[in-house]
Specification:
Elements (H helix, E strand, L loop, with lengths): L9 H25 L2 H9 L5 H9 L7 H7 L4 H14 L2 E6 L2 E6 L20 H7 L1 H4 L1
Antiparallel strand pairs: 1-2
Length: 140
């Protein structure tokens, strides 16, 4: 006697969907443990001409905006932003979701906009210690 393969019921799908806020909360809490706000902000702003705009871009990664919409919001081309989002994804500070309408990005948690004194004044190559602290992709 053969068993029919189990098909996900609407109830199962609804229960998974209802757990989504809990999953996002867990991701946010774990993100804060791995990347405290100052460290995450430093990573997002690292070597950017307009670092505060990239904090804005990071915050727009809420699963509602496409790459093009985020790029438009900070006045850069999608070609400029795409490799940055790819790097952020590799670092684990954003992740991709797919839903109707395409690919969207979600951040770990919302960053506060940096105070003027926290915005780097000049682009300089970070010291080895700074690379270890703020750019885990280089240190590893």
């Amino acid at each position: 006697m053969r068993r029919k393969p189990r098909v996900q019921s609407k109830t199962d799908s609804a229960s998974i969907e209802s757990m989504q806020p809990m999953f996002e909360t867990m991701i946010s809490l774990l993100g804060r443990l791995v990347y405290p706000p100052k460290e995450l902000t430093a990573i997002v702003m690292w070597k950017k001409r307009n670092p505060e705009e990239y904090v804005k871009a990071y915050n727009l990664c809420d699963g509602e905006y496409t790459l093009s919409q985020i790029a438009d919001a900070i006045n850069v081309s999608p070609g400029t932003l795409s490799p940055i989002l790819t790097e952020w994804k590799e670092l684990g500070i954003i992740y991709e979701i797919t839903k109707k309408g395409g690919k969207f990005y979600k951040k770990l948690y919302r960053l506060e906009m940096p105070k003027p004194s926290e915005i780097p004044k000049e682009e300089k190559e970070p010291t080895k210690e700074e690379k270890t602290e703020t750019t885990p992709e280089i240190a590893k």
